[in-house]
Amino acid sequence: MLTKEEIKTRINIVELISRTVDLKKSGPNHWMGKCPFHQDDKASLSVNGEKGLWKCFGCAAGGDCFSWVMTIQSLDFNAATIYLRSMVGDEPKHQQKKLDIGMAQRFHDTMPPVKREYYHSRGLVDATVDRFGLGYSGEAYTIPIIDAKGVLRNIKYRRDDSLPGADTKPKYWGITGASVQLFNHAALGHKTVIYCEGEFDCILLEQHGWHACTGTGGASAFQHDWLPLFGTCTAVYVCLDNDKAGADATHKICALLGEKAIPIKLPEDVGEKGDVTDYFVQCKHSPEDFARLLADTGKRKERKQRFQRGELLKDIQPDGFLGAYIDYASRLTDAPQEFHLAVGLSILAASVGNSISVRLWGSETYLNHWTVLIAPSGFYRKSTAMRLGLDILREVNPGAILPDDFIRENLLECLAATPYGVL
């Protein structure tokens, strides 16, 4: 068995980190890339191939190959050691044995009917429980992790909170030595796929008719090696948990997948750290609601791409969408033109979803998703397109008085009449 230092000398840290980060050489034995542990737009991650070290100058994270694996895969030191040993061919013989898929099947076949109630509480029906072989081991709920060849690679355990002393155990665990896997390979044979966070979210999406997959190691589990598996996909919706880890991982995954990636932001009612299961089960959203969420996000990305290609520049001209919108809204209401201008700009900002700069009617206007900045008036808080328009009007014309029921009764009709609907 190799020591820690011997493992470090055998691991090519550049190759290791390149599995999840697109690295570019910046000097002898030196590479740079975007750090996956924070919102990194400047490629702050530095990797020294000669010393076997990495360091982010943005978030101050850093270390050797052990700290990288522990951080990127959310593993403890022992699990990280097993993972790195497998990379250099230093695995104990018992770790090389295949897992018995019959064990997972027995957990499913012998599961007491009362234990199915837990799966029901997560929105899963019996047919879905049977399809994915979900079971019960006697002390925990089980999810078999099966690879593309039908080989059992791991069993994911979820503690049974009804048992005495359950709160002293981890919420989830797997078989010691099992590596991070892609769960539900079958989804990758389809053009449109949802990459989510967690096996239960993945299974619930499959139940509702979508093709979904996930990594078995949390938000940061996505591996660079998986990219070829998504080669035939034309659209990959990335829908992770509503927390910082999910947001950071979404940014990293979308950067790796490129143009086919479409990031999905769950609505605020799922709460902080909310996930897909919360969306359907706790918030009681329907599959139709989720389909609209995907469609609306996809339309915004399409418009962003069209704008970047220069196809939407006509929208901000007086004879384009903006002029037509102001003309139409002015005929429906007697609000000042500045108000209709602000709302029209907000609609365009939301539909494009990216920073753009235009010169219109003598004002330099900058648009960002749900945020409008009109120089030199200052920065306006995030809000809906309607509220943004009202805020801007009050800033440029402090004497204007427009009650909330004006927005509710009149402006909604104006927005609904636009080609893009109410955003």
Can you put this structure into words, describing what you see?
This protein has 423 residues and is an alpha+beta fold. Helices cover 37% and strands 17% of the residues. It has 15 helices and 18 strands. It has a five-stranded antiparallel beta sheet. Strands 10-12-11-13-14 form a five-stranded mixed beta sheet, sandwiched between helices. A four-stranded antiparallel beta sheet has the order 6-7-8-9, covered by helices on one side. Strand 1 and strand 2 form a beta hairpin. It is globular and about 80 Å long.
Quick one: overall form? globular
What is the terminal-to-terminal distance? 60 Å
Tell me what portion of residues adopts beta-strand conformation: 15-25%
Uncertain parts: 350-386, 389-423
**Strand ordering within the main sheet:** 1-2-3-4-5
The main sheet comes to: 5 strands, antiparallel
What portion of residues is helical? 25-40%
Quickly count the helices: 15
In terms of structural class, how would the helical and strand content be classed?
A: alpha+beta
Query: Gyration radius, to the nearest Å?
Result: 26 Å
Tell me how many strands there are: 18
Give average pLDDT, whole number.
Answer: 77
What topology does this entry show?
Layout lengths: L3 H7 L2 H6 L5 E4 L2 E4 L11 E4 L4 E4 L5 E2 L1 H8 L4 H11 L13 H9 L6 H6 L4 H6 L3 E2 L3 E7 L5 E8 L12 E2 L8 E2 L8 E5 L2 H9 L4 E4 L19 E5 L4 H14 L3 E3 L12 H7 L4 H22 L12 H12 L4 H16 L3 E5 L2 E6 L2 E4 L3 E2 L5 H12 L7 H13 L7
Parallel strand pairs: 11-12, 11-13, 13-14
Antiparallel strand pairs: 1-2, 2-3, 3-4, 4-5, 6-7, 7-8, 8-9, 10-12, 15-16, 16-17, 17-18
Helix pairs in contact: 3-4, 12-13, 13-14
